[in-house]
């Protein structure tokens, strides 16, 4: 089923808590919560730090660079709308600042992806209101 804006894949539904993350992606920036007590970035957005339980979290920009922590190659999509993209790389990227995000690695053949591979953020503007965070390999 097509989205009213013509996009055929599932779209995120930002909440008041996750809105700063999604708003930043629309500006092609990676923004995540940061705990000044634990000195750590936190992802996914939460009301309190999972380490110290403090509610004093701040939104900070990250570099958008990291490494492939884990991946799988999807050859038979189970979610409607992704059939034409198979095979594609579904991955966990570990950002240089620490948090891990579930993502797609693009601009990379499935046989060339490796754990530990350096990646950088890519921003896919899928609708006027939604930008998705994906990654592509950097370096050799």
Q: Can you characterise this structure?
A:
β1 and β2 form a beta hairpin. This protein has 1 helix and 8 strands, in the order αββββββββ. The protein is mostly beta strands and 140 residues long. The strands form 2 sheets. Strands 6-5-4-7-8 form a 5-stranded antiparallel beta sheet, covered by helices on one side. A 3-stranded antiparallel beta sheet has the order 2-1-3, with helices on one face. The protein is globular, with a radius of gyration of 16 Å. 6% of the residues lie in helices and 40% in strands. The protein has one domain (19-137). It has one helix at residues 19-26; strands spanning 30-35, 40-42, 58-62, 65-74, 88-95, 100-105, 118-127, 130-137.
How are the elements arranged and paired?
Blueprint: H1 19-26, E1 30-35, E2 40-42, E3 58-62, E4 65-74, E5 88-95, E6 100-105, E7 118-127, E8 130-137
Antiparallel strand pairs: 1-2, 1-3, 4-5, 4-7, 5-6, 7-8
A few lines on this structure:
This protein has one helix at 19-26, and strands at 30-35, 40-42, 58-62, 65-74, 88-95, 100-105, 118-127, 130-137. By secondary structure, it is mainly β. It has one domain.
Short key terms for the protein model shown above:
6% helix, three-stranded antiparallel β-sheet, 140 residues, 1 helix, five-stranded antiparallel β-sheet, mainly beta
Major β-sheet strand ordering: 6-5-4-7-8
Number of helices: 1
Alpha carbon gap, first and last residue: 39 Å
Kindly give the count of domains.
1
Structural class: mainly beta
The biggest beta sheet reads:
5 strands, antiparallel
Q: What's the total count of β strands? A: 8
Low-confidence stretches: none
Rg calc: 16 Å
β content, as a range?
35-45%
Average pLDDT figure: 94
Write the H/E string, N to C. HEEEEEEEE
- Could you estimate the helical fraction of the residues in percent? under 10%
Basic shape:
globular
């Amino acid at each position: 089923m097509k989205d009213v804006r013509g996009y055929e894949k599932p779209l995120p539904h930002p909440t008041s808590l996750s809105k700063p993350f999604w708003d930043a992606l629309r500006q092609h920036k990676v923004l995540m919560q940061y705990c000044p007590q634990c000195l750590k970035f936190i992802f996914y957005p939460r009301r309190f730090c999972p380490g110290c339980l403090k509610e004093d979290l701040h939104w900070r920009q990250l570099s958008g660079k990291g490494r492939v922590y884990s991946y799988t190659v999807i050859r038979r999509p189970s979610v409607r709308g992704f059939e034409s993209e198979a095979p594609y790389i579904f991955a966990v990227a570990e950002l240089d600042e620490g948090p891990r995000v579930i993502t797609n690695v693009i601009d990379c053949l499935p046989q060339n992806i490796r754990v530990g591979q350096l990646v950088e953020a890519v921003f896919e503007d899928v609708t006027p209101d939604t930008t998705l965070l994906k990654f592509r390999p950097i370096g050799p």
